[in-house]
Amino acid sequence: MDRIAAVRVLVDTISVFQKGLEPAKAIKAALSRALVPYYPVAGRIVETSPGEPEVACTGEGVWFVEASVDCSLKDVNNLELPVVLPKEELIPFAPAEVKEEDLIMMMQVTEFTCGGFAVGTRLSHPTPSTRLPLSSMDRIAGIRMMIDLILVFQQGVQPANAMRAALSRALVLYYPVAGRIVEPIPGEAEVDCTADGVWFVEASVDCSLEDVNNLERPLLLPRKDLIPYAPPDVIEGDLAFMLQVTEFTCGGFAVGIRFNHTVFDGLGAAQFSKAVAELARGHACPLVKPVWCREAIPSPPKLSRRHAPSPAGIDFETSVFDISTDQINALKNQFCRETGQKCSTFDVVTAMLWQCRTRAISLGPHADMHLGFAANARHLLRGLLPQEGFYGNCVYPMGIKANARIIAGSSPVEVIELIRAAKTRMAAMFLDWMMGYADDPYEVPLEYGTLVVSDWCRVGFSEVDYGWGEPIHVVPLNDDHNFIPSCIYLEPSKPKQGVRLMTRCVQKEHLPAFTEEMKQFVQN
Q1: Rounded to the nearest 5 degrees, what angle is found at the Cα of 113, between the Cα atoms of 108 and 117?
Q2: Membrane-spanning residues where (predicted)?
Q3: Where are the domains of the chain?
Q4: What is the pTM of this model?
Q5: Matching CATH topology for 131-296 and 316-523?
Q6: Helix or strand or coil: residue 95?
């Protein structure tokens, strides 16, 4: 197992001790004695043949550093995360002429004025260097795109340092994310586990969050200042994940995330983001163990080959509407009174949005109106996929078609019933698609009469906590994707309750009518 083709990385840990008497001297002597029976650890990793690493027992020893700092452990909060001291002062680094990846172990003892000390260790840890196939859902050409968003936090202490360290640790378990997407055969994308890493950017702006309205829409800062971009010589479509931390003068910060939809669906990208946050908060490992398992997803005979449309297209207007919990519950109660059944928040909000938009754009009574939404399909593959940990694509695009006159003229309860009826058909439709009996569900009409909604309320981005609390809100940033009318459901900015709709679904000439329809619906 040691010789599984791998890329060697050093995993860093810091152990903190309240007191000690000349600890560096004692540890150095003990380490020398330990290296007698553990003599291979004092050697170097060599690779005499490609893919055949071995240990050369050279007796060169473990790189050992003694250090001290002019402060007490209390002054630096006992090195609790996020660590106040720079990482470079607490863990050992070899000089430039030494290849750190050839070392098996490095150690540093840092003594504090209070008598306490910290032991920083760096251990060689291989991550597999292989190519991993993507699932049939990952390889759907239409989702080969970057999804951009920002998480906004009110406060943090050196968040970039904490997140960089946590990201490095997370990539040991999520090693495919540090690789690159390749396509050796057209249409057969896979992940090459190169350990090239995640593109990480540290940034700062000379203003407070209050100065820019907490990054509420419309953004008062350019999008390019908030999310990471790779240099021209790097193909962004080959990257799995990118991260930028932008710090504000008030102590708040924004985390700009760009994830490749080929590697993650929304739940998967949020799972990875929460794993990084858990490590930043001090957890020894992520609460959910990641699972690749892409081969477990069956390949339907009719797999979509439609490529992602060009971002340019119809010029949609961005609008934000906050729907309160009281307004949602009022319609839920109405539905229950009239049908004797319950409906979900998604049902209520989607029916309201679809009806308001249909009335506003007024395509004519005989026009076909299409509604699409991505439904999580993990529960339909129970027994094939693990109960938790899978972070690849596992969604089924549900579609509903109805006459514009019916959508515009029906009661809200009747539109909710249309949506609920489609959801009940999902399991059968998914099975038919997997068996090749159904048409490609990804062939959604790319026209103005179509509306696609995405529910991010329970995806998990709003639960990301790096140690200073959850984000005050989540801001999707794919404003340049203008190929289809869309809306994303989000949690509103704290402390509001309910659902926030970020819409890009009407052209400028229809925006006043759409806004008025939404206001009337909420008021009624």
Answers
A1: 30
A2: none
A3: 6-128, 131-296, 316-523
A4: 0.80
A5: yes
A6: coil
Element (H, E) at 415: helix 412-424
Structure tokens at 347: 């049902």
Q: Is 343 helix (H, G, I), strand (E, B) or coil?
A: coil
Pick the closest to residue 143 from 27, 51, 264 (CA basis): 264
Cβ within 8 Å of residue 414, ≥6 positions away = none
CATH superfamily to which 131-296 belongs: Chloramphenicol acetyltransferase-like domain (3.30.559.10)
Does domain 316-523 correspond to CATH entry 3.30.559.10? yes
Over its length of 524 residues, how does the chain's per-residue pLDDT go in tens digits? 454 444 556 678 889 999 999 999 999 999 999 998 999 998 888 877 766 778 889 888 898 999 999 999 999 999 987 778 888 899 898 887 888 778 889 999 999 999 999 999 888 766 777 899 999 899 987 788 999 999 999 999 999 988 988 898 899 899 999 999 999 888 789 999 988 889 999 999 999 999 999 999 999 999 999 999 988 888 999 999 999 999 999 999 999 999 999 999 999 999 999 999 999 998 888 999 999 999 988 887 555 555 555 545 678 999 999 999 999 999 999 999 999 999 999 999 999 999 999 999 999 888 999 999 989 999 999 888 998 999 999 998 899 999 999 999 999 999 999 999 999 998 888 888 877 777 777 777 888 999 999 999 999 999 999 999 999 999 999 877 777 899 999 999 888 899 999 999 999 999 999 999 999 887 76
List residues with catalytic annotation.
Answer: 261, 465
Do you know the residue count of the chain? Answer: 524
